[in-house]
Amino acid sequence: VLCASQDFDFFYFVQQWPGAYCDTKHSCCYPKSGKPAADFGIHGLWPNYKDGSYPSNCDPDSVFDKSEISELMGSLEKSWPSMSCPSSNGYRFWSHEWEKHGTCSESELDQKDYFQAGLKLKEKANLLQALKKAGIKPDDELYSLESIVEAIKEGVGHAPGIECNKDSAGNSQLYQVYLCVDTSGQDIIECPILPKGRCASTIQFPKF
Ligand code: 5GP
Ligand code: 5GP
Ligand code: 5GP
């Protein structure tokens, strides 16, 4: 049976704060290239539907081919590092993101375009700078969720979705920032639907 999941309405462009990923029950491991900079890293570019559901693993025949992204390697290591264990060079994470999500937007972006789109979006959406401008820094302090949303809205031009996780002490902390992107993978847009964030009204911005 043919799956009608090649079309989608928009992308979530998701960036993760490594200090929160490393502060969960799951351990984290730095990539083989070393500890990433204290900056948000790309998690993924995820095709989504306006009702909040999403397609996944759309083309089992389109396997990840690292030769297609050889020119992007340096930038991917810097901006799209994998924080999971065991320590890796990133290929496992990128291959997962391509096969689960990227194959669902193949009508718009081939594999190289897909990763390049993620890298360009990260340049357009400098979260750390937007937050810094509002006096919000990764210093283990608590900030209101609203102030974080407003700072990103001001700096990036569109309201983000914020996802929190809990540290070992149970504090709600800033984990991922979702921005919405049009189907070309280029322009940040207002989100048709925001993801469920599970944040408290005041959240910690952990050090990394
Ligand atoms: P979690 O269980 O942490 O919410 O999500 C696990 C995985 O499901 C994510 O890494 C991502 O691949 C996928 N996922 C979760 N929420 C969304 C969403 O709103 N849109 C899309 N496209 N994928 C999602
Ligand atoms: P949540 O309850 O956070 O929306 O979803 C929990 C998990 O269910 C997500 O992490 C994701 O793995 C899965 N999930 C939720 N919605 C969808 C969907 O529309 N499609 C797929 N493939 N998985 C989903
Ligand atoms: P998702 O399915 O949510 O798009 O991606 C989550 C998968 O990627 C999980 O299997 C996770 O182990 C793997 N992964 C590898 N590196 C990272 C990382 O730095 N952050 C996250 N969230 N997942 C990673």
From TrEMBL:
InterPro entries reported in the protein's UniProt record: Ribonuclease_T2_eukaryotic, RNase_T2-like, RNase_T2-like_sf, RNase_T2_His_AS_1, RNase_T2_His_AS_2
Listed SUPFAM superfamilies: Ribonuclease Rh-like (SSF55895)
Active site residues of this protein: H43, E97, H101
GO molecular function, one term: RNA binding
Keyword hit for Hydrolase: yes
GO annotations of cellular component type: extracellular region
One example of a Gene Ontology biological process annotation: RNA catabolic process
Top-level taxonomic group: Eukaryota
This protein's UniProt keywords: Disulfide bond, Endonuclease, Glycoprotein, Hydrolase, Lyase, Nuclease, Signal
One Pfam family matching this protein: Ribonuclease_T2
Similarity comment: Belongs to the RNase T2 family.
PANTHER family tied to this protein: RIBONUCLEASE 3 (PTHR11240:SF75), RIBONUCLEASE T2 (PTHR11240)
Protein name: Uncharacterized protein
Organism encoding this protein: Rubus argutus
Taxonomic placement: Eukaryota, Viridiplantae, Streptophyta, Embryophyta, Tracheophyta
